[in-house]
Amino acid sequence: MKKKPAFIIRILMLCAWLVFSYSNSANALSLVRDAEIEKFIRELSIPIFESADLNPKRVNIYLIPDENVNAFVAGGQNLFIYAGLITAATHANQISGVIAHETGHMMGGHLVRLNKEIKAAQIKAMIGMALGAAAMAAGSGNGGGELGTAILLGSTSMAQSSVLSYTRKEEEMADEFGLNLLADTNQSGKGLLEFMEIIEQEQMLSPKSSPYWQSHPLTEDRKTHIEEKIKIDSILAQKKSNKDEEEFQRVKAKFAGYLWTEYEIATTYKGNSEADRYARTLSYLKHNHYDRAEKEINVLLKQSPNDPYYREIKGQILFERGDVKEAQKEFELASKYSDEHPLILVQLAEAKLQTPGQEKSAIKDLNKALGIDKSIAYGWKLLSIGYGRSEDEGKAFYALAEYYAAIGDKKEALKQIKRAKDKLKKDSIEYLKLSDLLNSLKKK
Ligand SMILES: [Zn+2]
């Protein structure tokens, strides 16, 4: 990671993303959550996972806000996708190709190798810490640094992509499985081949900086084999479908706006297309040019007033500028148009908690969000704040217990469960939920 912690925390406050990040080390792993990008990746992945007989709900997809071009599977069904992979691609079908190849690694049970293999439990603990650090950073404004150190211990070599690698045999197998999955889901295989050419060019330009090349060794044999297979299969040989292109260009612009320098954005995204404006909006937001960001997003909203993600970004611009009431209105619309996406509900609740008297309403949103996605650690943290302000101590301790469970801190979770038990009424829903939580912790 090239980012300094202050920078990352600033982004966290700025963007409509819950960025989970920390630490000043070059090796820290950070994760990002974003409703729009997750939806795009999920939609591409679901048919591929299903065709591989994997339950899509069981596969965790993690987005890493890093410019390196990379993707890998670790700890079983955890797929890590780097932002740089999205921004390097030129067509959605290339992303599908990569997802199919990575799914091939899952099917083969391949383990990405460090100096030694990463154990599933390590990965799990690491992800837990990553989610927790984020929540910390978001909650305290600048408290992410200390927790970052903890992450570092677990992930020193994790993000250092050069040491991650599959064997050549595994690569061939993943290509084989991947192409079959693309054919089974009626998709062109051309994107996978094109993506390999992109990687090849990157490797030629700067041999040391192609992590994808290093983790998935590309040989001439592999390329030839893929080419042959595409040639003889009419489904794989078909023209790439453009059905996901619009979403792809938006997601790509979003990541670019978020990661690239202002100069890169000004020279690459200089037109008047939706993607151009979206990239500029994100870039302005990142660099605190709120007025310019608002101007761009307003143009996009004029074209698509019911777009949940444009509303979400506008909400974030206003929230960052300190216009909390107006931000809340935008988050309310974003929530409505996204059919109450849990990540957006959490942002809405965060805005509500800024204004006294809205605790009840914020608590309602948070319970709804966490009912859909329990893993949003930051949501549990906000919920405990909401209950705390409503002087509902028992429930505040309960939410805190869930928060610690979500970040993988079993010891602290048990402590909060005990506190909650002393304060909660025995016939309350939360009291019942405590036993569920206790049981799930015992299994871990
Ligand atoms: Zn591979």
Topology diagram in text:
Elements: H1 5-14, E1 18-20, E2 31-33, H2 35-51, E3 60-64, E4 71-74, E5 78-82, H3 83-88, H4 92-107, H5 120-140, H6 144-155, H7 168-184, H8 190-205, H9 211-215, H10 220-232, H11 245-259, H12 262-268, H13 274-286, H14 290-303, H15 308-321, H16 324-337, H17 342-352, H18 359-372, H19 377-389, H20 393-406, H21 410-423, H22 429-443
Parallel strand pairs: 3-5
Antiparallel strand pairs: 1-2, 4-5
Helix pairs in contact: 2-4, 4-7, 4-8, 5-6, 5-19, 7-10, 11-13, 12-13, 13-14, 14-15, 15-16, 16-17, 17-18, 18-19, 19-20, 20-21, 20-22, 21-22
The structure holds zinc ion (ZN).
Q: Can you tell me the CATH class of the largest domain?
A: Alpha Beta
As a percent range, the share of helical residues equals 55-70%
Question: What is bound: which ligands?
Answer: zinc ion
| Spatial strand sequence of the major β-sheet | 3-5-4
Give the strand content.
under 5%
What number of domains? 2
Round the Cα radius of gyration to an integer and report it.
Answer: 22 Å
CATH topology of the largest domain: Zincin-like
Shape, principal axes of CA atoms: globular
- By DSSP, the count of extended strands is 5
